[in-house]
């Protein structure tokens, strides 16, 4: 009798385990998305719609893009989808070991956000070309995200470099060299290289604030503890903040300026085996389903919703308009091919 009961318990446990596996890959499981902080709000809206349609919870875990990738490559954590604020990070760090395809799908631009309580905001509105002079003032607190963890951070550093070229004013680089241990190198080919040590330091007494991801600065700004911050335009729109649109030669939002953008290279994680040179380029977001995603088919179905009309509308309302047609690289699943323009393998 006891043996029969034990066997019955084993069979029941096996059945429950099998059911759990099936649910994990189907409508009852949880999709896990590691994403850039600036993508959190639109992805959460798409996740809500996906749950309404399919009954599946989608866990959106936001961080800096580089940090999101390192959760997989360095920490060995499991996820279904990776979405980043610079699509070039996917071929650089995930292909081919962790992913075999990826899609570049949405755009943005860099802006300088502020509030009605920000020092000299009225001067900024009257004379927007003086933005870098205002940031240089000793009583102004300003910030950007950590370039070693977040693309918005290395883009902010790159934008300052571009500003020095655009305005023909090398003193603008003092925003970096006077406040941090970032090094400036002028290369023989005319490229400006900005080297960010892995142990980035903000100098004692500096008014610069650095946080792991760009959206971390919003709370400080809204609390009046920060006057200005480099953010994506989408973040400003989503949080109803005032913002200054930088010249298109600086804001990384205009593909026509690609050649000028490439004159600045930001070298992140300098001094480590993960040191990477990132040439400035127009801002384009990227997404992929990991090859070993626990719920691979479900993740692809989520991307069908995201890349379709509903997702396009959500992202456009969030200030992150889609490319005319998303660009796909590598062995893209058949289910997604009608939604993208197939390209060669990049990177």
From TrEMBL:
The molecular function terms in GO held by this entry are:
molybdate ion binding; tungstate binding
* Top-level taxon of the source organism: Archaea
Q: Which Gene3D superfamilies match?
A: Periplasmic binding protein-like II
Q: Which InterPro entries match?
A: ABC_trnspt_W-bd_WtpA (IPR022498), ModA/WtpA (IPR050682)
* Coiled-coil segments: none
Query: What Gene Ontology terms for biological process does this UniProt record contain?
Result: molybdate ion transport
Which family does the record assign? Answer: Belongs to the bacterial solute-binding protein 1 family. WtpA subfamily.
Q: Which PANTHER family match?
A: MOLYBDATE-BINDING PERIPLASMIC PROTEIN, MOLYBDATE_TUNGSTATE-BINDING PROTEIN WTPA
Protein name in the entry: ABC transporter substrate-binding protein
């Amino acid at each position: 009798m006891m043996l029969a009961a034990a066997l019955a318990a084993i069979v029941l446990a096996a059945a429950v385990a099998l059911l759990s596996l099936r649910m994990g890959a189907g409508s009852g499981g949880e999709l896990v998305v590691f994403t850039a902080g600036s993508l959190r709000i639109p992805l959460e809206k798409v996740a809500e719609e996906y749950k309404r349609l399919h009954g599946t919870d989608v866990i959106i875990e936001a961080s800096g893009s580089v940090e999101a990738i390192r959760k997989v490559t360095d920490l060995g954590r499991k996820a279904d989808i990776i979405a980043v604020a610079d699509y070039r990070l996917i071929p650089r760090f995930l292909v081919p070991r962790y992913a075999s395809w990826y899609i570049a799908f949405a755009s943005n631009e860099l802006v300088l956000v502020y509030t009605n309580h920000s020092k000299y905001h009225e001067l900024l509105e009257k004379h927007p070309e003086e933005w870098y002079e205002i940031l240089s003032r000793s009583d102004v607190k300003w910030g950007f995200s950590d370039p070693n963890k977040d693309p918005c951070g290395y883009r902010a550093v790159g934008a300052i470099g571009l500003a020095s070229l655009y305005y023909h004013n090398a003193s603008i680089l003092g925003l970096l060299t006077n406040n941090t241990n970032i090094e400036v190198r002028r290369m023989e080919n005319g490229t400006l290289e900005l080297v960010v040590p892995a142990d980035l330091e903000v100098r004692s007494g500096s008014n610069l604030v650095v946080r792991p991801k760009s959206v971390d600065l919003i709370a400080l700004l809204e609390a009046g503890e920060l006057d200005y911050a480099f953010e994506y335009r989408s973040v400003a729109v989503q949080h109803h903040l005032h913002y200054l649109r930088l010249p298109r030669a600086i804001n990384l939002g205009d593909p026509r300026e690609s050649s000028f953008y490439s004159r600045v290279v930001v070298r992140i994680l300098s001094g480590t085996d993960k040191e990477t040179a990132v040439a400035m380029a127009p801002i384009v977001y990227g997404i992929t389903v990991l090859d070993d995603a626990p719920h691979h088919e479900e993740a692809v179905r989520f991307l069908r919703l995201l890349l379709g009309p509903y997702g396009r509308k959500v992202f456009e309302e969030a200030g992150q308009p889609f490319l005319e047609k998303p660009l796909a690289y590598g062995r893209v699943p058949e289910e997604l091919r009608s939604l993208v323009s197939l390209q060669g393998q990049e990177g």
